[in-house]
Amino acid sequence: MSELPAAAPRSTTRRSRTVQLLLGATGLAALVLSVFLLGPPVDGLPLDPDSVAPDGLRGVVEVLEELGVEVTVDLAPPAGADPAAADPAAAPRAFLPVDRLDAATRAAWGEWIDGGGELIVADPASPLHDLLPAGSDQLFGRSARSPDCELLADVGEVLHSAWEGIEVPDDATACFPVGEDAAWLVRAAQGEGAVVVLGSAAPFTNGLLDQRDNAVLAAALLGPAPGSRLVVVPRPDEAPTGDDGLLALVPDGVWQLLALLVLALVLAVVWQGRRDGVVVTESLPPVLPSAELARSLAGLLQRKGDRADAAERLRRGNRRTVARILGLAPDTEPATLLHEVRRRSAVAQQDAEVALLPGGVDDDASLVAVAAASRRLRADLARLPSGPSVLRPP
Question: Is the pTM of this model over 0.85?
Answer without folding.
Answer: no
